[in-house]
Amino acid sequence: MKVRVINEVPKDIDFLHWKLCFQWCEYLYEGEKSEFGYRFIWKDEINHLKPQRGQARIPTIVEMQNLLKEAEKDGWLGKCETEV
């Protein structure tokens, strides 16, 4: 499976200089099947994805709400679901 990031908002969180990102993605599966969805994922100090951390730990509900607000402010939260 491959993941194509369509939209993303980062949020700086004081955790070893990593940042938590909220993304709208297309999940591309073998056999030309694909699905769309959101994900939270960590990036390191040189902007590399850290999927080995498994499900992204979101430290507080305030941090999660901030990411959602950023995506809404950027104009793609929710709207991208209707454009698929």
Class computed from helices, strands and strand pairing: alpha+beta
End-to-end C-alpha gap: 19 Å
Overall, the morphology is globular
Radius of gyration over all CA atoms, rounded? 13 Å
How do the SSEs run, as a string of H and E? EEEHH
Give the domain tally.
1
Q: Write down the overall mean pLDDT.
A: 81
Proportion in helices: 10-25%
3D architecture notes:
The protein has one domain. The protein is built from 2 helices and 3 strands. The protein has a 3-stranded antiparallel sheet. It is globular, with a radius of gyration of 13 Å.
Short description:
By secondary structure, this protein is of the alpha+beta class. The protein has one domain (2-82). It has helices spanning 61-74, 79-82, and strands spanning 2-15, 18-28, 34-43.
Write the layout of secondary structure elements.
Elements lengths: L1 E14 L2 E11 L5 E10 L17 H14 L4 H4 L2
Antiparallel strand pairs: 1-2, 2-3
Key terms for this structure?
84 residues; alpha+beta; three-stranded antiparallel β-sheet
